[in-house]
Specification:
Radius of gyration: 21 Å
CATH superfamily of the largest domain: Aminoglycoside phosphotransferase (APH), C-terminal lobe
CATH architecture of the largest domain: Alpha-Beta Complex
Strand order of the largest sheet: 1-2-3-4-6-5
Order of helices and strands: EEEEHEEHEEHHHHHHH
Shape: globular
Largest sheet: 6 strands, antiparallel
Oligomer: single chain
Distance between the termini: 36 Å
CATH topology of the largest domain: Aminoglycoside 3'-phosphotransferase, Chain: A, domain 2
Number of strands: 8
Length: 285
């Protein structure tokens, strides 16, 4: 790992005081660690509401300008997903800056108890299909993209609006490849493969193509582990060699348009909600 865990902005324990922008009206019963991350700090906050109800929330936080972008992007993306498939997504509540630590930012949502069981393939596919169906045709621009920068771990991806799914996916991939190359330095084979790869955006092996994004992401996240870069280069080489002379297929796979058009779900209502969220105060907390 390349960095120490982020500093926890909140005290952990029973009856602790939390920043007024995180919890305003409720009584804090406990704050406990929830999950682990190298990029953010995550906690479970259990509170007693004014009406006596006991409610738990999940909160994550990070510092600096990147932390602000990460929390803002998380809120926007989770709101879009929640608007489309609320049965599958914890309800987003707020994002914002701490009052006492203005350079520390947070995202908070309802807390959902996680199960150890893995959903069946049919259940998982059903959730994806529900997202596609609910978000179809709702892009505010009629294009593919998202109005906010989002992150894979702490790595930003390019969500600029684009006229086709292929172009949108290619620009996201290019942003990751550029970040990987900037981090690791010049490599003749990597640079050559990156250029060849970018010129051929549509491969028959779509699963392998989509998985490549995460091979590159791992190479960025674990820069001191050269095997991850080796895996990314090997997979890029395999795809370029296999499909280097193939014609680009016309159109896109069924349903891919809907996956990115989820952006439109939250766009129309984001303005009113962000006014509250940016302050970091949820009306129900």
């Amino acid at each position: 790992m390349d960095r120490p865990p982020p500093t926890q902005a909140d005290a952990v324990g029973d009856g602790v005081d939390l920043d007024q922008n995180v919890i305003k009206r409720s009584k804090v019963l406990s704050v406990t660690a929830s999950g682990k991350s190298l990029w953010v700090r995550t906690v479970r906050i259990t509170t007693e509401l004014p009406d006596g109800a006991i409610v738990s929330y999940f909160k994550k936080g990070a510092t600096g300008a990147k932390g602000s972008k990460m929390m803002e992007g998380t809120f926007a993306a989770e709101q879009a997903l929640y608007d489309a498939i609320p049965q599958h997504v914890p309800k987003p509540l707020a994002w914002g800056a701490y009052h006492t630590q203005p350079d520390t930012y947070f995202y908070i949502c309802e807390f959902i108890e996680m199960l150890d069981d893995v959903p069946s393939a049919r259940q998982w596919a059903g959730a994806v299909a529900a997202l596609h169906t609910a978000s179809m045709g709702k892009s505010p621009t009629g294009q593919f993209g998202f109005p906010k920068t989002t992150h894979l771990a702490n790595v930003p991806v390019d969500n600029t609006w684009s006229s086709s799914w292929e172009k949108f996916w290619a620009q996201q991939m290019k942003s990751l490849l550029d970040a990987e190359e900037a981090l690791h330095g010049a490599d003749e084979e990597f640079s050559r493969l990156k250029e060849s790869f970018g010129a051929r955006r549509n491969f028959n092996d779509r699963n392998a193509l989509y998985a490549l994004k995460y091979h590159v992401l791992l190479s960025i996240m674990y820069k001191k582990e050269p095997r991850y870069r080796g895996i990314a280069i090997d997979e890029m080489r395999r795809l370029v060699e296999k499909f280097g002379d193939a014609e680009v297929a016309e159109g896109t796979a069924i349903g891919e348009e809907a996956l990115v058009e989820k952006a439109g779900v939250a766009e129309e209502t984001a303005g009113d909600e962000k006014a509250t969220a940016a302050r970091g105060i949820s009306p129900k907390i």
